[in-house]
Amino acid sequence: MIHAAYLHIPFCHHICHYCDFNKVFFENQPVEQYLAAVNKEMQKTMENFPTDYFKTIFVGGGTPTALTEEQLEVFLQGVKKYLPFDEETEYTFEANPNELTVEKLQLMKKYGVNRLSIGVQTFNEELLKKIGRVHTNSQVEQVIAQAKEHGFHNISIDLMYNLPGQTMEDFKQSIEKAVSLNVPHISSYSLIVEPKTVFYNLHRKGKLHLLPQEKEAEMYEYLMDTLASEGYEQYEISNFAKKGFESKHNLTYWENNEYFGIGAGAHGYMNEVRRANAGPLKKYIHAVEEKGHAYIEEHKVTEAEKMEEEMFLGLRKGEGVNKAIFETKFSRSMESIFHEQIEDLKKRGLLEEDEQRVFLTRQGKLLGNEVFSQFIGVI
Ligand code: SF4
């Protein structure tokens, strides 16, 4: 049975310069029709893949908080109606600081949301403008204070580094500020210039000045050291949490477990098949209205792919990949399949091994993609 669901709300009021997520500008979109399609997809999914209980529900985007209060309530009612969950379920909403009103917080609370993931990115307001964000630092502070007042204690904030023009001092101040807000979870990602973004076009025209690679590594090392000294455990390559506040939903992905993906462009993994939904809103709505789902891709994951995924997803975690769990899942030892890769990466100082597990060294974290790629196409 599957116990995790990702729900996608693809609307944004502003488009950030670095963003390549599946999202659309909010104005003139068929939001109500979209929400009706999401309800139908939830209903049909539960009919086709029944489950008794959700351990995690994650609502991402786009920005779920782009919805009006009325739209938000329609959505929250749908989740409550179709997905079985209770107060023990980790129920997360992604939020933008300038859109998370007290009324929306109250609605979320009423319908069982208990975790917020807030897109902050940086506490340097000039840099915020440069990357196309429209919130301010005081909005972040206010929203976090209000969320806590309304009983949200499981709060995560996102920070970016390696931003054009960002100095080490800027990044240090952002981390300091994040820590001072006393949130139990921080995610921090390096900027990647993706095709079809404003930054990509600027870069092509030579108008975006990216930082040298050493700076990125320096920032990442600073991030790891500082958050460790502040009591945050680096439980995943880019995620840091106080004890007990790790994102259970994201651990579903890294532990290579199955989940539902509902909404335009969402990806799911059910009964050994990875599926992708149609991305464009109209296509998604039309498909769901007709068939109850909007899969445009279905890939049955082979045993070999599962084993490779177990390695390159699992190695993202601080604790790495557990040898006994690997053997239980595949009836073969990790050693019998990946001996060569593991030994080579150990020699290069990127992997470490003990009796129970294989995990990244500090250097391995800095060169994560290099490590992960060694486990692809091996079998
Ligand atoms: S980063 Fe988030 S808020 Fe910005 S455009 Fe992308 S999805 Fe929307």
From TrEMBL:
Broad class of the protein's primary localization: cytoplasm
Keyword Signal: no
This protein's GO CC annotations: cytoplasm
GO molecular function, a single term: metal ion binding
KW Chaperone (keyword) present: yes
Family annotation (Pfam families): HemN_C, Radical_SAM
Subcellular location: Cytoplasm
CDD domains registered for this protein in UniProt: Radical_SAM
GO biological process, one term: porphyrin-containing compound biosynthetic process
Keyword terms: 4Fe-4S, Chaperone, Cytoplasm, Heme, Iron, Iron-sulfur, Metal-binding, S-adenosyl-L-methionine
Alphabetical list of PANTHER family matching this protein: COPROPORPHYRINIGEN III OXIDASE, RADICAL S-ADENOSYL METHIONINE DOMAIN-CONTAINING PROTEIN 1, MITOCHONDRIAL
Cross-referenced NCBIfam families: hemN_rel (TIGR00539)
Family to which this protein belongs: Belongs to the anaerobic coproporphyrinogen-III oxidase family. HemW subfamily.
Function: Probably acts as a heme chaperone, transferring heme to an unknown acceptor. Binds one molecule of heme per monomer, possibly covalently. Binds 1 [4Fe-4S] cluster. The cluster is coordinated with 3 cysteines and an exchangeable S-adenosyl-L-methionine.
Protein name: Heme chaperone HemW
Natural source organism: Priestia filamentosa
